[in-house]
Amino acid sequence: MARRALEELRSQRWFASDDMRGFSHRQRTQQMGMRREEFLNKPVVAILNTWSDLSPCHAHLRERAEAVKRGIWQVGGYPVELPALSVGEVMVKPTTMLYRNLLAMEVEEILRSHPVDGAVLLGGCDKSTPGLLMGAISMDIPVIYCPAGPMSNGQWRGQKTGAGTHTKKYWDELRAGNISPQDWVDLESRMTRSIGTCNTMGTASTMTSIVDAMGLTLPGASSIPAADSGHTRMASACGARIVEMIWEDLKPSQIIDARSFRNGLVAYMALGGSTNAAVHLVAMARRAGVPLNLDDMSEMAGKVPVCANLFPSGEYLMEDFYFAGGLLALLKKLESHLEPNALTVNGRNLGENLVGADCWNDDVIRDPSNPVVPLSRGKTLAVLRGNLAPNGAVMKSSAANPRFLKHAGPAIVFDSPAAMNAAIDDPDLDVTEDSVLVLRNAGPVGAPGMPEWGNLPIPKKLLKQGIRDMVRICDGRMSGTHYGTCILHVSPEAAVGGPLGLLKTGDLVELDVEAGRLDMRVDVAELERRRAEWKPTAPVYRRSFAALYQRHVSQADEGCDFDFLSAPGPVAEPAIY
Ligand code: FES
Ligand code: MG
């Protein structure tokens, strides 16, 4: 690959000029104890670090940044660590999704306003991957994604426990009276035993694996457990490689195209990945100027069955997946679906990166001829449309009870989580397992931020009868670690006048996943009457980021990006005077 001249590096505009500003930039760098030889005439590499004390998934990223720096120094770069918003899934309320676009904006502006030639992006917890990459795609300077890596396997009383998946499972068992309050306390310290992202195929591993398949990480990096020494070596290798990428001027726009998205979708479906990815991928694609919609995803889901035997669709954890050969072994088994010529950050194409990718455990990483969930039984992503969701809704039918995939039942509608929580365990609630539980005003505008409220709790009286799944509908999202017959991302959402807002308790709802239908059986005249009476119930924020968000966010089927950010880049370079 051709090597750029030093003068072409954007950092040279700051450091090489012999005017007063250039003096200040050099002077102030020396103020930090750097010798001129240490930073002048070198590529300057940003390490965008989403570490925080409230993000357990990223707890090790300060140390990993040191490894990245080591790699950068060794090949003649100058590393600068820059903190970026940490969108840790567990602690950030009401939802990290409210802040994904804020992180994306921050990344774009940090990279734009500073003297950096490229960046290593350190993240991994759900929204951090799309947030970091959306900003980087728009900025379009060389970047490499360094995923935080999944936490180590968990066990409790001889049973595998996966983050998120088993929290939900044992919560239901506690409410059903099958485990004791003391068991529940014990679980607290047993379920998540190391640093790193969720060890199930939740949104974190879904997104890091997808961007790995898209060529934005070092090959296979997404599968390396956070606590493995190989993870530190991978971080160092990211540092060494980004310096070369800067000289080669290998930018996201050369890596991301329709082929790389296709490869990402193959990984997504084969992993049984999170429904959340359906939102993030549309947002990323729009920023890159690549056409991609929900139907493209469901089409791929109809071709590639779930082959990774991982919770919540299967029964293993990410460490098992890594030992079985990880993402590269999975992709190798799906080679016929892939675009082998798609370029990746290591300068080689995906096909070359898959040479020699072996699978060491055919139960963890299944052959497509022996999938975890056959296509006839369920897909990673099904798209539904009808008079309840004209622009689409999604569900992971592979993680749903097959009995409900064609279903009709009366709706029980909640307008808020508070209303739901007040009623759901009431012994007098008129509910059976055939009821359809609905939570609305949980969309991008309504909540705002489209929280993960879509896995509505099963009413306690049904739990006690042994029932663990029901049809649930929401205009919000669901954790990728969860499972059940949950119809999500209903678009348009209730708060902007979507028909979900017109549904009433007792209306018959019909679901037919194979036909891709979601309808309410309410006649047109009655719907018109209800529409005339409809008033938005969601709060409209007058100030704060939430106000900006509500004004500019797009609907779920459009990626929930801001209208003023979703056009393809590149952004203008700042003036330096
Ligand atoms: Fe961070 Fe699951 S909570 S990855
Ligand atoms: Mg999650």
Automatic annotation (TrEMBL):
Protein name in UniProt: Dihydroxy-acid dehydratase
Domain called Dihydroxy-acid/6-phosphogluconate dehydratase C-terminal: residue spans: 364-560
Species this chain originates from: Microvirga brassicacearum
Swiss-Prot/TrEMBL keywords: Iron, Iron-sulfur, Lyase, Metal-binding
Family: Belongs to the IlvD/Edd family.
Residue ranges constituting the Dihydroxy-acid/6-phosphogluconate dehydratase N-terminal domain according to the UniProt record: 42-353
InterPro entries found in the cross-reference section: Dihydro-acid_dehy_C (IPR042096), DiOHA_6PGluconate_deHydtase_CS (IPR020558), ILV_EDD_C (IPR056740), ILV_EDD_N (IPR000581), IlvD/EDD_N (IPR037237), Sugar_Degrad_Dehydratases (IPR052352)
Pfam families, alphabetized: ILV_EDD_C, ILVD_EDD_N
UniProt key word Iron-sulfur: yes
Molecular-function annotations in GO: hydro-lyase activity; iron-sulfur cluster binding; metal ion binding
